[in-house]
Amino acid sequence: MRRLMLLRHAKTETDSPSGRDQDRRLDERGHKDAARIGGWIGRHPPFPDFVQVSPAVRAQQTWEIAWEEMKEHVQSIRMAAATDPKRMMLVGHNPGMHELALTLAGSGDAAGRKALADNLPTAGLVIFDFDIKDWNDVAFRKGRLMLFVSPKLLKQASDDD
Fold it and tell me: How many structural domains compose the chain?
């Protein structure tokens, strides 16, 4: 069994000071949302054995903030790139992350799949399990959607408490 977690970067500024899309940074909401999703991940193991982060500033910032929040809840999260990780996380941005999530989803949480069909919001997290022994066997429509969560959904859940 392999688990793939896709995390879209948090909310960003519209333009970067350099004018390059790659350099766009998180805005105030993005910082809060990255911390919220990182805290949630930290309270809901198992954690990724390996994390691959896009070189875009917004993805790097999302991971740095989420990681700091995770460390508050977990003493030791293995961040070393394992030779054969069972659980992997990719932190990236659109276009691409939403499309990847849609193409991997084959079964699993029906409500999550319906919500995901509309959007993978900023700081949104999608968790898939694959009944495979090797990452080379990942294929379209073979992922079982275990969970779809976003800062907005987490806030709604905490407001209901």
Answer: 1
Which distant-in-sequence residues (6+ apart) come within 8 Å of 156 by Cβ? Answer: none
Side-chain-side CA neighbours of residue 121 (13 Å):
15
Share the mean pLDDT of the chain.
86
Residue 145: domain span: 2-160
Give me the CATH number covering residue 68.
3.40.50.1240
Q: Give yes or no for residue 75 having a pLDDT over 90.
A: no
pTM score of the predicted model? 0.75
